[in-house]
């Protein structure tokens, strides 16, 4: 095996849910006559999804969804899988990045799988001629769903898209545990700093933020949460975290991680307030949460290490990891989300691709929830792989839950 | 001050949100011409809600919602508050219990506030002549909402009811933190057993269950979760708990707490499997989660202590706290939910009562969500009482969140 | 059974280690011809120790070690046990307290068991005529050991005393878990306030303090630690707590618990700095950690509730639990340490009493460690009652650990 | 700056205690006329210690203490520091390894600093002619101290050695937090597997083990502890972990980390019991805790990835990280202990080197504790760098703590 294949073999071992789906796909070929266009982080776990789809009979065309997240040996290994065509390349230029997207679209796909909506965006702007052929798509990220909902609200989304991101089986695991663990380990291994005792600032108390907060807290950090929603802010407070504005957090924090999915979270107003040695990183999809252009424009000095850019601002050193890109993937040692978590998310993708292929024609343009039975199937397959059994409602209990006629 | 008043003065001090609302209510009297019927746990915190409603101009008629939860000194103190009429009595018989409900209804109320739906149930069965006068109601518990939704689905609910229980400001605090902390401390103080190192079984991984699981875990317990929903089961697994069926848990558990809101969770099938010394309790609304009648019918011996009934089953001692009733209220030392949590829940009740008085006429029979602005108001008042400031979206950020036109 | 016996029967069930020891004691009567004088908290768990000692053949004379901690029904039940003479009484005056100690000493004991050193102190001051008859003693608390070591350093301790408190099997369980859990539940059940989100101040980061800190943290509190030792302070910092002086903590804290074993921890300098509604309690042995006399002398108002004294200082309400006495025992609902923890501590007492009876004559006056084999025996009996097996060193491993001749 | 210097500059920024010491060393040159021989992990943090010693006037000769832990760019950067001579090389052969040690000793040193006792061992065996010139030494690890104490017990240790490892300021931070965080992040980043929900086996519940257990638990793992000491086993049980023998743990565990400092912890008896996909690693000093030779001799198949060796045993895949060497240093992405933790440990080394230079002549051969005032100094410098203030005993409190004359 070459290194890409070794990585895929490692990932495959810890992805039992996709493994079960693959068995059925190989037998039934439910994706025959399907061309799937994908823009995802091309690394070992994604490759196991890709080979699963191909095992189901699909032709798969894939490129990256982030200029720094492709692993070239995996891309190469993918190209030797039957029915798979991979165009991703690490450290590509913006032109190469969009070139990859175009090559994927040139296949005239019927189904799309996106991680950040770049593929769908391209289809609706530069490549509108291909829209007619699309049955539907799937989107993986909070950020992508945000953008798709805005698009749908404007009446501009021309085919049905499954919001894989929003389903409980994705958010409660991929966002909470996946982002939580992998962003934390990426920060630890890149900076070699201690988490215990630190002021650890988490911007945003959504699913990603609360996972990260809990884990940093579990290592002994004092966690600061910034929020815009008073209810989430109060939840963070009662969970034992320190809630404050970013203006205040900037003065206190040792390590910062943004998880909002919004823009301009840490900006030129905040950098000059920070302590010497502050470390900044982003776990949201796009690199707009930390205002790097401001740092570039205002720096008094600069040092560059593996995955760390240190800016001197007002005489103090402020270090940004991975140029403000998704820290768990974009630092040199980054591995992305843990394998087991992607097993769940990608099992959803595999089953939603099958669903959209079969049902997409009946749906108008818009954003759709993952069908509940798919969610339940993935959860049940995972529990079964863990040998965990759970209770079932008895008939009497079901009746009790739907009756209203029983008093105190 | 007598002891009831001393208890109310203590509670009032830790209920700043109701305090703020009371200031406005006293000035504006928004509840004048309103007769409010209430069936709630009559203790100090409820009393602060009652006096707040009365301060807003309402006539308030209140009785208990559980035969064991009334504190007589508080009931007495309430009766000396202007505009308040209290009929609750501790350790009352079933007849006295429904007698209290009838006395409250005799006032011909316009608004109801329920904790378990007994009041609304009585209105729709025995006291239908009063229905015409009702503008609407509020319901506090998961259990009550379940019953109301079933009723509404059958087309039997004749006035609008606000599902206070379901709103984030209630569930994320009252259920998670309120039930979590108070059920745990009630078990600890009643049994004097150690939590650290124990197998602590939580039935149900809803809001109450996950609060309780987290806190028992925080004291060093090994937590077992039983569930019927595979997604929640998997969440519990990833959160570090041991997921299994109740059949398995019965053999392992040292301490059991049911939080499902359903019936027949621990039954005659489970008791004989248990370890000698097992301790059982219920934190759900009704005393149907543990099958006490089975224990009574099958016991080989019996001992009774303060709040603890010990049954001998197959030669082993199995102890049930508070006769399987809501453990945090019904054990002799029980104090119910912590004050600060009820401040939030009761602030919702106060504002929803005002809302239903003003808007109820426009709504048809059915279950309604708490209006979002009420939820936000309560959260903001609480944050402000804590001197916690949070961020606000900038115009640019709002635009970013609603646009879809920005690529990688 | 009367209530005292019911309490003892409850405790006995969760004390398997004493149960095993009792079996051997009943068979071998190792304590025949021994008169044991005890001053301990007289409640159900202590009673199980007392009946174990009596089962071993000892005559036991016991009184309380704290004016508020005796449970009268247990005292009464003890008096009906063969060979036991109990003089303890709840809410006794200072005269009655020392009267109880004198009655115990009137028996002319050969072995003492102390919880705070009051018995040994009395023997060395007012009752020196009895010293000759004493073989040795055991002391349970940090505070008592402190005093005994000072006494020994002055050459004033005239018989050998086993420092039960200092042995790992006591400190790591009784102090960490026993004080931690029971002080926390006592505060929760007495005040009905929420722990989640609160600033919870722990004075002292010894065994008791770190147990309490960890558990309050586990419920969602933000924990502040005050310390005098820079190493412990740094440990607390790295463990995720907020380390500061009491002068600073006084301004921030919502709930305070002192665990230092020292005096004058929260004083007249601190009270006026506190927030309205601050709650103060003590988990150290003596009631000198919070300066109650200052509060009494400077109060502008006063309210008294069950277990809570509220003082008005500078217009703000400051509440002290249990008059500053050991909060887990002295609040009205207090149950003292959890049963399982006292099973370990009292198993040490039982075995140390046997040891001092047999070996005390060979030892000169001074403070002695618990013999290591007793410590190991108690740990092993407990593990065995839990059905927990552990590894054993192989011969090869033992050799490896004692060799120095193996390089990289 | 070259990459070695960039790494040193990064580390220096997070080592404020060594920074303070360096200021004094530069001014006072307390180590002039001292030749220091060192065998340590040669990476950025060690380099900051080395330059601090050199700043104090010492000539420093350094080589590695582990064939896989040297960073060559740092070794090179060190060689350009005045007064420093570095002989370490990554991935060196055993001959080169001992060659490095010999070159260091060729300088005829007066003081030694060891991490695993290889230097002192060589001095007492192959290079005894140099012993006369040695004033004393310092040892960093648990393992080294074990060996030194055995040596001293045999009367074979010919100069005084400070047991830096055993002092609270080392064990409570370096072992608990340093090993805990860095072993965990090394496992996470190397394997890309999820920690949440996993059975995580920690062999040994000493300082390293309990740090690691707490942190894995903090990420949502179910932690299994194996122990040989019943007291530590019971502590682990009460802390919420699952205590069992390695024979049982082998069947259950998903991820294993050994931290015992002993040999033969996971052996040929255990591997065949393991689950398919089990991951094994070692955080103890030497690579003898996992029996790699057995795996090599009995494997049915083999795959090699970056830092992961996968053996097929009984048809199941068992993966060992870093060939069973110290996982936080020896995996390809390993960074060793966090910077802030090494700041404390190396500050102890710097001050102990100064102490042994000044006082070593007065001491006979043997193992000595770190002088208490050095421990306190390091703690105080660290607290001061964090702007943390702590309380001081008043005269009255000191008197109280040493008196025994104050009763209840």
UniProtKB/TrEMBL annotation, chains A, B, C, D:
What SMART domains does this protein's entry cite? AdoHcyase (SM00996), AdoHcyase_NAD (SM00997)
Co-factor binding details: Binds 1 NAD(+) per subunit.
Q: Residues in domain S-adenosyl-L-homocysteine hydrolase NAD binding?
A: 175-334
Q: Which cofactor does it need?
A: NAD(+)
Q: Which UniProt keywords apply?
A: Hydrolase, NAD, One-carbon metabolism
Q: Which GO terms describe its cellular component?
A: cytosol
- Look up the EC number in the record and give it: 3.13.2.1
A Gene Ontology annotation in the biological process aspect, one of them, is:
S-adenosylmethionine cycle
Query: PROSITE patterns given for it?
Result: ADOHCYASE_1, ADOHCYASE_2
What top-level class of enzyme does the UniProt entry assign?
Answer: hydrolase
> Do you know which Pfam families this protein is assigned to?
AdoHcyase (PF05221), AdoHcyase_NAD (PF00670)
Q: Which InterPro entries match?
A: Adenosylhomocyst_ase-like_sf, Adenosylhomocysteinase-like, Ado_hCys_hydrolase_NAD-bd, NAD(P)-bd_dom_sf, S-Ado-L-homoCys_hydrolase_CS
Q: Which SUPFAM superfamilies match?
A: Formate/glycerate dehydrogenase catalytic domain-like (SSF52283), NAD(P)-binding Rossmann-fold domains (SSF51735)
Positions annotated to bind NAD(+): 141-143, 206-211, 227, 283-285, 328, 337
GO MF term list: adenosylhomocysteinase activity
Membrane spanning residue stretches: none
Q: Which PANTHER family is this protein grouped with? A: ADENOSYLHOMOCYSTEINASE
Q: Which family does it belong to?
A: Belongs to the adenosylhomocysteinase family.
- What this protein is called in its record is Adenosylhomocysteinase
């Amino acid at each position: 095996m070459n290194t890409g294949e070794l990585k895929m073999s490692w990932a495959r071992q810890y992805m039992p849910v996709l493994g079960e789906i693959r068995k059925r796909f190989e037998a039934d070929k439910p994706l025959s006559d399907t061309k799937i266009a994908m823009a995802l982080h091309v690394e070992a776990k994604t490759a196991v999804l890709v080979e699963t789809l191909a095992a189901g009979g699909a032709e798969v065309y894939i490129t990256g969804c982030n200029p720094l997240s492709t692993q070239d040996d995996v891309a190469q290994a993918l190209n030797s899988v039957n029915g798979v065509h991979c165009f991703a390349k690490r450290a590509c230029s913006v032109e190469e990045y969009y070139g990859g997207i175009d090559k994927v679209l040139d296949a005239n796909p019927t189904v799309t799988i996106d991680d950040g909506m770049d593929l769908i965006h391209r289809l609706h702007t530069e490549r509108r001629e291909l829209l007619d052929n699309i049955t539907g798509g799937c989107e993986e990220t909070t950020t992508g769903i945000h953008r798709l909902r805005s698009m749908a609200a404007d009446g501009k989304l021309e085919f049905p898209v499954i919001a894989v991101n929003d389903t409980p089986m994705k958010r409660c695991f991929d966002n909470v545990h996946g982002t939580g663990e992998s962003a934390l380990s990426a920060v630890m291994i890149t900076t070699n700093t201690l988490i215990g005792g630190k002021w650890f600032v988490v911007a945003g108390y959504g699913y990603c933020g609360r996972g990260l907060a809990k884990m940093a807290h579990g290592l002994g950090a004092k966690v600061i949460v910034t929020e815009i929603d008073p209810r989430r802010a109060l939840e963070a407070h009662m969970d034992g975290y320190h809630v404050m504005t970013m203006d205040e957090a900037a003065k206190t924090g040792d390590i910062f991680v943004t998880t909002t999915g919004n823009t301009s979270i840490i900006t030129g107003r905040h950098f000059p307030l920070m302590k010497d040695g502050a470390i900044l990183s982003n776990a949201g999809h796009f690199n707009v949460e930390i205002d790097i252009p401001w740092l570039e424009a205002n720096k008094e000095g600069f040092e560059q290490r593996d995955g760390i850019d240190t800016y001197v601002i007002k005489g103090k050193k402020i270090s940004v990891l991975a140029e403000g890109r998704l820290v768990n993937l974009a630092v040199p040692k980054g591995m992305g989300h843990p394998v087991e978590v992607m097993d769940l998310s990608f099992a959803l993708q595999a089953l939603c691709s099958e669903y959209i292929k079969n049902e997409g024609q009946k749906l108008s343009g818009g954003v759709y929830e993952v069908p509940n039975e798919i969610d339940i199937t993935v959860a049940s397959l995972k529990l079964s792989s863990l040998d965990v059994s759970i209770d079932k409602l008895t008939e009497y209990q079901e009746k009790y839950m739907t009756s209203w006629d029983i008093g105190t």
